[in-house]
Amino acid sequence: MIWLTWRQFRASASAVFGVLGAVALALAITGPNLYREYDALLTRCARTCIGDAYDHFFFPHVGAYFGLILLVTVLPVVVGMFWGAPLIGREFETGTHDLVWQQSVSRRRWLAVKLGLVGLATIAAAALTVVAVSWWSHPLDATAITGLNRMTPIVFDARGIVVIGHSAFALTLGAAAGLLLRRTLPAMAVTFAVLVAVLILVPTFVRPHLAAPERLESAITTNERVGGLDLAEDGTIRGLLVDLGPPGAWMLGNETVDATGHAVVALPAWAAGCAPPDSPMGEAVQQQCLQRLAAEGYRQSVTYHPAERFWLFQAYETVIFAIVSLLLAWFCFVWIRPR
Amino acid sequence: MTAVMRAAGLGKRFGRRWALSECTVDIPAGRVVGLVGPNGAGKTTLLRLAVGQLQPTTGGIEVLGGRPAASAAQLSRVGYVAQSTPVYSRLTVEEHLMLGDRLNPRWCWKTARARLDSAGLDPRQRAGRLSGGQRAQLSLTLAVAKRPDLLVLDEPLSALDPLVRREFLQGLMESTVDAGVSVIVSSHVISDLERICDHLVILVASRVRLAGGIDELLASHRQLVGPRRDPATLPGAEVITERHTERQTTLLVRAHQPVDPAWTVSEVGLEDLVLAYMKADAANLSPMEMAR
After folding, report:
1. Same domain membership, residue A147 and residue A161
2. Secondary structure letter of residue B145 according to DSSP
């Protein structure tokens, strides 16, 4: 059974591992150089020159940086569509279930070996990719702009053990779809659609609630961290946008509250002066405006998940996806019996 | 006589359509059994239930004394060639034999090699590039070399031209007769079955219309031709079909005792016999049953 599984799986396995191996090799070759550049940057400006780091280090590598994030994000989709969906679906499609399930091996054992071996390959592929990409991207993660810290969804999804959870889920989802639909192509389509939906919905609606968000309220008296105004479509000012959370935090909410602690519906029209000025001359005006806001009791309130929760959230989400994967696998074992 | 397959009240429903209903059949061991019947009679469904590819909706079925596909041991005792003779198109012929070897405890390389040689199959060829006949030969080789006690073949001949068909049947007989394997083979082509089978089961609309050894069946059926008369008066014989012209009556009967010498009596061929039972059934069915 192991031989047969390997014989059937080796083509699609070599395709995926071939690409991943080539990428890993390229990273291994270019990585040391990147680290040398990073060390030089650190000695040059001792972690103080944010602008310099961004302009001369992060920005020149931004293409490769996002390319690798995309690669890691796409991996579960590829696993689900090309390893998962054909696993059982193709047997039905080509009629070979009439051949292989008539050998002296029960369907459940057949499935156990198939899911077991392809599952191990999935975990290996995900682990290899994450380790290689995270190592290479580390200097860039360290110099990325605040909006791209590793708690933000697109980076979070491409770092750490959660990628293994996503991939295992994709594999079992594809297998279950193939078992239900009995054809490869529709199973691939369903797998793709469900995976994309889940990978968008989970960071949006589930991940923020894995723990109670932290909340911070502060009066804004200086313009240092004011990023702009939160404008409604009709031009009313709903509040300020202030970069208030601790560094590396995942910002969930950023709103201006009035003296009674309620969220502002609309700030007075004069608050337009609090916007970052076009020229340095306008800074005094902005400063005045901010002080007037503070004097009238307006404060800025932010909700966020701090950077320290990265591994906690990674663990939570991996466990959730592992449980769902086990449920899908269990469904396959139940549904595969003759019917 | 022990039964190789025994079904009682067997039924299978797909959605709202019954592919087989109330099927009760006993098939003796050690025989080569031909299963015939019109399209939609439930032959394929019955065979798929027998090998455990389907689960019955109602009733029960026992094969070699066990529940079909209930265990690896049960699976190892039954060889099955599906109607589409499926093979893995990306695997070579040799790799199919390796598959058979690794997945079957009783696998016999000698049988497999001998069958491949006589069928003229190149072990290095990819199965996807085989002709329909060669694919059927490969499927049969896999089913035979696992050395089953029962071989189930679902219309394995449908894709083959007459020459290949004859070679296939010859190969089938060579590999099974000596080993004492029971065989159940379904087919439309009665002349093919006549060549290899010694037992016949006629299935019409899920019901077994006739079952028995071919020799006994041929011996007990006669065609009678005589002046036109009412057949109900015929003593000691069951009338299967009757055909009347103005002056003459032709009957196909199952006779239990010598018939009235006034009739001109002649023997019946297997094909006529089978067709007579299929036709009789179609005529006897009520409109409601026909609709089903």
Report:
1. yes
2. H
B103 vs A: CB within 8 A: yes
Chain B residue with CA closest to A9: the answer is B90
| Model confidence pLDDT, tens digit, residues A30-66 | 999 999 998 888 887 765 666 677 778 888 899 999 9
In this prediction, residue B249 carries a pLDDT of 87
pLDDT tens by residue, A290-323: 888 888 889 889 999 999 999 999 999 999 999 9
Name which of A245, A252, A246, A259 is nearest A299 in CA terms: A259
Chain A residues closer than 8 Å to B98 by CB: 3
Is-contact A321 A168, C-beta < 8 A?
A: yes
Indicate yes or no: CB of A339 within 8 angstroms of CB of B51. Answer: no
A166 shares its domain with A258: no
Contact flag B75-A105 (C-beta cutoff 8 Å): yes
3-class SS at B210? strand
- Beta-carbon separation of B90 and A11 below 8 A: yes
Contact A129, A76 (CB under 8 A): no
Q: Are residues A106 and A44 in the same domain?
A: yes
Inspect the interface and report whether the beta carbons of A106 and B84 lie closer than 8 Å: no
Q: Chain B contact for A8, CB < 8 A?
A: yes
Distance CA A91, CA A184 (A): 9
Report the complex ipTM: 0.88
Rg of chain B in Å (alpha carbons): 21
Interval B103-118: pLDDT, tens: 999 999 999 999 899 8
Do A153 and A30 lie in one domain? The reply is yes
Q: Which residue of B has its CA nearest to A93?
A: B86
What's domain B3-204's architecture?
3-Layer(aba) Sandwich (3.40)
The answer to whether B95 contacts chain A (CB < 8 Å) is yes
Tell me how far apart the alpha carbons of residues B41 and B187 are, in angstroms, rounded to a whole number: 12
Between B55, B91, B104, which is nearest A339 by CB? B55
Give the residue-averaged pLDDT of B34-63.
93
